[in-house]
Write a structure and sequence with these properties.
single chain; 39% helix; 2 domains; Spore Coat Polysaccharide Biosynthesis Protein SpsA, Chain A; eight-stranded mixed beta sheet; two-stranded antiparallel sheet; TOD1_MUCI70_glycTrfase_dom; transmembrane helix; membrane
């Protein structure tokens, strides 16, 4: 509410409150005229500031509304595009073309309890354990140059013909291709060259735990020493194969071998002249051919370099081989159980050249490979896709033969060994109906209980997938 009062012949609004009282008192003073003048200036300045603040608030609100609206629009467009892509992918899968959709939420997998023996103190190899199929295997170690063939080049896996390949699946006395094959005299090595001192050490190993790192693809993960018995420390060879590049990388990170060539429990064995440019394929040499690298060994355990062993090797051998009366043990895959699914997954993730995968897969189908039927109680295996990062084996004739056959498939086709596992096993079994191969395909959760899993070191991709 305002009232009017007269000052110097003018009607002015009377402001209530403190400011009004001040101006009223000033109006009665001798400086009344100046006071009113200041009051008017104060009013004009206040209105100008107020207008500026209102304008600023409106401007900020307008900018915020514009940006927020644009973001909502983009988000809506992205949701629409994603939805369309999802329906297109579903249509492709429904028609049998395309690849499996990628899960938005990665399922977590956990270890399960494994009933190991409490101690290895009273551990004794069963007397009837080695009652497996017996025959003699010899290996081709040198090939002759085909007559007048100037294009001949020595290959680590040799030049196996399809006829030789077919005959090699018989469990009988034979001489077969199994890596480490040299060319004629005068040709350079085909690869995987080792120091003579390392060879001497390896030839004396009876029980082996091995792994490898090539191309600096991983960190060095030492077995958990406090969980390894003194007996195993004294009697088991822990061998880590590395190339020179990896050795330099490990040394730069403070992991240099001591005077004996050890880093923790690992005996570091340097491989020179790698046989393949594909580091994954090179890694299959120590993975599958431990019976060639350690010719006097009776048992071997392979673990991928992404794993840290935290179980005593002798307990592993007792549980997965002796107790199960098996000569070869490998876990099934944690998610996929059919080779058809594995083929699609490899293509979706571009793990290897798609044409090469198709050639291998079509070859296997033409030779009798069929889909895995989980409802069939007569399946020879609980899964046709392994999780090949952990393998336990006795070096029996059929176990060694299977390892050679599986390696030859990796050498001939793609380095994706999960694609060739079921075919190799089923063909070996089909061609030797009276000579059973005792393979223990155990649960993946048991594999997770044996070692701690890590991610591979992030390194630039190699031409392996080309």
């Amino acid at each position: 509410m305002m009232a009017l009062y007269r000052h110097n012949g003018l009607l002015l609004p009377e402001r209530r409150g403190i400011m009004g009282a001040i101006f009223k008192s000033l109006g009665k003073s001798e400086h009344g005229s100046r006071a009113v003048h200041h009051e008017r200036r104060f009013g004009r300045i206040t209105k100008q500031r107020l207008c500026r603040w209102v304008f600023l608030v409106v401007a900020i609100f307008s900018i915020y509304s514009t940006v927020f609206g644009l973001r909502m629009f983009i988000h809506a467009k992205m949701e629409t595009s994603t939805s369309i892509a999802h329906y297109v992918e579903q249509d492709l899968l429904g028609s049998g073309i395309g690849t499996p959709p990628k899960s938005k939420h990665r399922k977590k997998y956990f270890p399960c309890e494994v009933e190991f023996m409490e101690s290895i103190d009273d551990l004794v190899e069963p007397s009837n354990y080695i009652n497996f199929t017996q025959f003699s295997l010899e290996y081709i170690d040198q090939e002759e140059k085909p007559f007048q063939n100037d294009l001949f080049e020595p290959r680590f896996g040799g030049h196996q013909t399809l006829e030789e390949r077919e005959k090699s699946f018989f469990g009988r006395n034979q001489r077969l291709h199994c890596g480490f094959i040299k060319g004629p005299e005068g040709y350079s090595s085909s690869g995987f060259d080792l120091d003579e001192k390392d060879k001497t050490y390896m030839y004396n190993c009876k029980i082996v735990v091995s792994s490898c790192i090539f191309g600096s693809s991983d960190f060095l993960r030492r077995p958990t020493s406090k969980l390894i018995s003194q007996y195993s420390k004294n009697n088991v060879c822990f061998v880590m194969f590395v190339d020179e590049q990896t050795l330099l990388k490990l040394s730069s990170e403070g992991n240099s071998p001591d005077h004996g060539g050890y880093i923790g429990l690992w005996k570091i064995v340097v491989v020179r002249n790698l046989p393949y440019t594909d580091m994954r394929r090179t890694g299959k040499v120590p993975k599958f051919l431990s019976h060639r690298l350690f010719p006097a060994s009776r048992y071997s355990i392979w673990l991928d370099s992404k794993m840290r062993l935290q179980t005593d090797p002798m307990l592993i051998i007792e549980y997965f081989l002796w107790r199960r009366k098996a000569e070869y043990a490998i876990s099934n895959h944690y998610r996929r159980h059919c080779v058809w699914e594995e083929v699609l997954q490899n293509k979706r993730l571009n793990k290897y050249n798609h044409t090469a995968i198709d050639e291998q897969f079509n070859f296997y189908q033409s030779d009798g490979l069929t889909k895995f039927d989980p409802s069939n109680p007569d399946n020879p295996l609980p899964s046709y896709v392994p999780e090949g990062s952990f393998i336990v084996r006795a070096h029996t004739p059929l176990s060694n033969l299977f390892s050679c056959l599986w390696f030859n498939e990796v050498d001939r086709f793609t380095s994706r060994d999960q694609l060739s596992f079921a075919y190799t096993y089923l063909k070996l079994r089909r061609m030797n109906p009276d000579r059973p191969f005792y393979l223990n395909m155990f649960k993946d959760c048991e594999r997770r209980a044996l070692a701690k899993l890590f991610h591979h070191r992030a390194v630039p991709s190699s031409p392996a997938a080309a």
